[in-house]
Write a structure and sequence with these properties.
291 residues, alpha/beta, Rossmann fold, eight-stranded mixed β-sheet, 9 helices, binds thiamine diphosphate, binds iron/sulfur cluster, binds magnesium ion
Length: 291
């Protein structure tokens, strides 16, 4: 007789009902996460979800796995410590673009460098949802939807994939909360990657960024997984921010651990080449614009 216990996606949800606004993209992320954990047949006691502060950072409370709802911007140091102390656990850090790229930006850079085996899923809505709609690092420079920045911030938006690649992350992908099945697939790959895996998820805030309801029409699968870091940099030169899929997966050593991918003196020359290429592409675009 087969006595294997089947764990269903709903078994990973807690009895606490989300307080997210009806229609918030974060519901899709929670569904993708529970689907992924069921697909990987991970026992809830084998998984820990660690977050900071924000609407998105409430996610651990809505799961039945171990959860840690911590301090704003500090999900990654806690998750890193946990992953190092308990390598038997599957550790997933979650949160928002404000939490991860603004107050937690420094931790993001160093988590990419350290390459500790954990998954970092950022629900990116390009706004501080919880504190009622201020601009975040991923808000476009001319987004004028907040009374604090009525003419926009005037500051170029943070580009999470480029930053992660520059800082040395070995696994870099982008998903969309409106496509939980594809997102669950990416999340499973991220969890199985034996190093630091970064997953940006476009997750609309329908309350403070109602225009993000249009994301469904803008988002398109398009990244082809690359193992070559320079090729991944080149691919990002033409990224419009709405392409989804696995962009980059660094080679894994024979023993199963991810190779460190941070820039070394050996690839300085090729990075300089990319910088030249980038400058040339910008000059070309400027010339086209003028003519
Ligand atoms: C040290 C500290 N500074 C500021 C805040 C206020 N605060 C709470 S959530 C938040 C931003 C949340 O934005 P994001 O991470 O994008 O999450 P979202 O609500 O959009 O999901 C801020 C500034 C705080 N809780 N703690
Ligand atoms: S304010 Fe925005 S991010 Fe927060 S729960 Fe509502 S829709 Fe979601
Ligand atoms: Mg946000």
């Amino acid at each position: 007789m087969n006595t294997a216990v089947v764990i269903r996606p709903k078994d990973y949800k807690s009895a606490t009902k989300p307080v997210w606004c009806p229609g918030c993209g974060d519901f899709g992320v929670l569904n993708a996460l529970t689907k992924t954990l069921a697909g990987l047949a991970l026992a809830p006691a084998q998984v820990a979800v660690v977050s900071g502060i924000g609407c998105s950072s409430r996610l651990p409370a809505y799961t039945s796995v171990y959860g840690f709802h911590g301090v704003h911007g500090r999900a990654l140091p806690v998750a890193t410590g946990l992953a190092v102390a308990r390598p038997d656990l599957t550790v997933i850090a979650t949160g928002g673009d404000g939490d991860g790229f603004s107050i937690g930006g420094n931790h993001f850079l160093h988590a990419c460098r350290r390459n500790v085996n954990l998954t970092y899923l950022v629900m990116d809505n390009a706004v501080y949802g919880m504190t009622k709609g201020q601009a975040s690092p991923t808000s476009a420079a001319d987004w004028a939807g907040s009374k604090l920045t009525p003419d926009g911030t005037g500051i170029a938006a943070f580009r999470p994939l480029e930053i992660a690649l520059s800082a040395g992350a070995g696994f870099i992908a982008r998903g969309f909360s409106g496509d939980p099945n594809a997102l669950a697939g990416l999340l499973a790959e991220a969890i199985e990657y034996p190093g630091f895996a970064f997953l940006q998820v476009l997750s609309p805030c329908i309350t403070y960024r109602p225009e993000q309801m249009e994301y469904k029409a803008l988002v398109a699968a398009g990244f082809e997984p690359l193992a070559d870091r320079n090729a991944a940099f080149r691919r990002l030169l033409t990224d419009d921010g709405f392409t989804t899929g696995l962009l980059y997966r660094a080679p894994v050593a024979a023993g199963g651990s991810a190779l460190a991918t941070a820039a070394t003196p050996d690839d300085t020359a090729s990075l300089a080449g990319i910088a030249r290429e980038f400058t040339a592409a910008r000059l070309h675009a400027a010339n086209e614009h003028e003519s």
